[in-house]
Amino acid sequence: WFQELWEKKKSLETKKTLFLWGMKDPLLGPKYLSRFSEAFRKSKTITFAHAGHFPQEEEAERVAEEILAWN
After folding, report:
1. Residue 3 main-chain phi, psi, to 5 deg
2. Distances from the Cα of 47 to the Cαs of 9, 17, 67, in angstroms?
3. From the first residue on, what is the mean pLDDT of each consecutive set of 10 residues in the chain (71 residues)?
4. Coil, strand, or helix at residue 64?
5. What is the pTM of this model?
6. Taking a C-beta distance cutoff of 8 angstroms, is the pair 55, 28 a contact?
7. Which of 10, 35, 55, 57 could form a disulfide with 22 if both were Cys (CB 3.0 to 4.6 A apart)?
8. What pLDDT is attached to residue 3?
9. Rounded to 5 degrees, what are φ and ψ at 18?
10. How many CB atoms lie within 10 A of CB 40?
């Protein structure tokens, strides 16, 4: 399923993208971060050292600040 979804990313590759990346994510941990960063050329990544898969729940205030500051 993931590979099929990954193959459909073409329409999003050049769009401005913000990744909020939990470094303790057991599913999409740090090993996938470079793959996403390279595939989405106009992306910005904010990492959360102590967050897992849902940084918006684990570090809600910082996530909100980063989203509001992102242009």
Report:
1. -65, -40
2. 22, 14, 13
3. 83 89 92 89 94 96 96 74
4. helix
5. 0.81
6. no
7. 55
8. 86
9. -115, 120
10. 19
